[in-house]
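Narrative summary of target 7.
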Amino acid sequence: MIRRLILLALGVIIVLVVAMGIGLYWFLSNDGVRIALEREATKWLGEPVTIGSAGARIFPRPAITLRGVRAGEPVRIFLADVQVSTGLKPLWSRRIEDAEVAVSDSRIDMPLPFTLPAPGGSPAAPSTTGGLQIVSVRAITLQNVTLASRGRQITVSARSSLSSAHMNLERFTAAAGTTSLEASGLVQISPRLDAQLQVKADHVDVDDLIALADAFAPRSPRRPPSASGPLPGRIIARISSETARASGVDVRQFSTTLVAQGNRITLSPVTLQLFGGRYRGSLDIDSEVGALRATVRAQIADLDVAQLAAFGGVADTISGRLSGSGTFNGRGATIGDAMAAATGEGTVTIASGAVKRLGLVRTVVLFFGRPAPNADAATDNFDRIDATFALIHQVVAASALSLHSPDLDLVGAGTLSIPTKALDGHMDLSLSEALSAQAGTDLARFTREGNRLLLPAVISGTLDAPRVTIDAGAAVRRGLRNEVQRRLKDILGTLVPAAPD
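Modeled conformation, tokenized:
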């Protein structure tokens, strides 16, 4: 008898459980739920929301599956597949609490014409129409979601948790063009967007990175510095990558802190290795309608000049190690355009190298005739080149250029046109004492200053085919002037007796 009662009780319990499961499934699958969700979401966003279909599952946790969710008019959000799971107890009270949301194979076009209400607030009052009330979301998972903004798009996947007005990004991956990165960090959603991210990547295209930051950074109307009120949203990302590409140059050990706020993007400091040397600097970009204004502050150290020349299309022209600094400003539709139109000033030093194909020493020696039979071979090796320059419309103008070498010293000024590689310079060449002693002509005597020969020279041609010529007319005029001054000094010396001791 007792056995039958126990079996009967178990049967009743099983029937009740099945009935509850069927009732819950019917409740979740009922089209009224889809309509209620559309209504609540429309109220929440302030824009029309439609849901293609709604399905349900009971185990392991009650969940609603939504497909074909569209928001905005025109549609700015399309969610192909959304799964929302929640606790069973609040669900009986028609409330979604402590929910988990998974979104996949979707697209969001930004900027959105509406504002997503902050979690933890009161985006929707408790429903009086029998609809569901969305209370809290504890986890959001994104898979293959495309974000598009201002002509750029990026595909992301993420795993995060939501707490009050903060989102904890446990893992965030993004891919755009040749850039693929992984990030983690904390995002404050209210009262304004403020993201603090740590980003690692195997490879980064810096131009793409800047364009993406410009496309997806929260924008706000320009305001004067003295204006009060809430600041625009901000994204701070500390980025590191083993390899990167910047303005067509492959670099290594790229590291920077990117800050995007309003219409401004800064990368500071930027550190990387290129051409066998090191770069440290900053990039400040201010976005305008249809254009960017960029400021670059750069310091370079110990670059291999031969590698730099080969990259510039003038291989086997110069060697040495280059260091320098400068500040440059430009404006254009893209970063490349802004850099092409840049202006600025800087200094540069090249140490322990050689100028090839120029033939400075050979030109000077042949100007005076053949060198002495026992003379050592002259080279165009140099100890140091120093220059102070200005960059204007792709023309580098060196206002103070000097070269020191064992065979000669050079001082002057000149220009280099970057597009054509054309050279135009006017220099004074001072031959070493050893080479000066080999020149025995009258002209050599006329052009001596002390124990060294001083000659005016003109540098022309291009970087890959430079030419140096001695300005013979100027040399003769200078020599005659020096000779006249020397003879006048001798004459005056004979007319004016020396002072007695």
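Residues 1-26, 119-130 have pLDDT under 50 and may be disordered.
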